[in-house]
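Hi team,

As requested, here is the filled-out complex form for the S-adenosylmethionine run. I kept the field names the same as last time so the parser does not choke. Let me know if anything looks off before we queue the next batch.

— J.
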Amino acid sequence: MNPPMPQHPDQAPDPLSIRRLYGRAQGHPLRERAQRLVDDLLPRLAVPPHGPLSAESLFGNACPLALEIGFGKGEHLAFQAARHPTWGFIGAEPYLNGVAGLLAEVEDRDLPNVRIHRGDALDVLERLPDASLSAAYLLHPDPWPKARHAKRRFVNPGPLALLHTKLRARAQFRIATDHVNYMRHVMFVMQNHPGFEWTAETPADWEDIPEDWPDTRFAQKARKLGHSVWRLIYTRL
Ligand SMILES: C[S@@+](CC[C@H](N)C(=O)[O-])C[C@H]1O[C@@H](n2cnc3c(N)ncnc32)[C@H](O)[C@@H]1O
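And here is what came back:
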């Protein structure tokens, strides 16, 4: 048998080649309201399961698009959707209880500009036109702290190359993490991608909390435990 070929880091397995979701699909059973939202509202807001996607097909007009990858309970996505009513926001999240959380935000705030994919963000990204996203958010992604699991991290060459083609020039890609190793990993991988530029120029640029970037649940939990939260803003060149 031939020995295995050594792999260039750019060709190492990562989420794009593994194509498997590792997180929880559901937690506690849904309460009555959450179940109603999943049954009645989700079908109206769901991203179609197959075929090409566009601002027109999702929102009925050529609005700017933004994608949140793993929106958790959806509080950040709802905040952005309320703040930018002329944009269309797509959220991808496999965790049903999280999807129900975003649905509740959409209903409470009466947000017409949100669409939801219950599943892998890569399934949405692949179907969007190139240069169609005006912003992307990856907030407190699963850190996969063990070295042998690092290939599961979203911030890896395969997913980044795909995201890069889907972002418009000068679009922002915002990443938050409370995990120091993930932060280092992000800085290393992003610095090695020639198509992204880190916007921070002074320590304040990443230490101060931008007013258009509220803490998510995971950020709040981390701060309560006394952990740091890092926010990194990259521009697509
Ligand atoms: C640590 S939680 C953070 C949730 C939220 N962003 C926050 O900050 O509160 C990470 C989330 O990413 C979701 N996730 C993991 N892999 C994903 C993927 N490939 N596509 C979309 N969401 C994903 C998980 O289900 C989980 O809800």
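Two things worth flagging: The chain has ten helices and seven strands. Strands lie at 65-69, 88-92, 114-117, 133-139, 167-177, 196-198, 230-236.

Thanks,
J.
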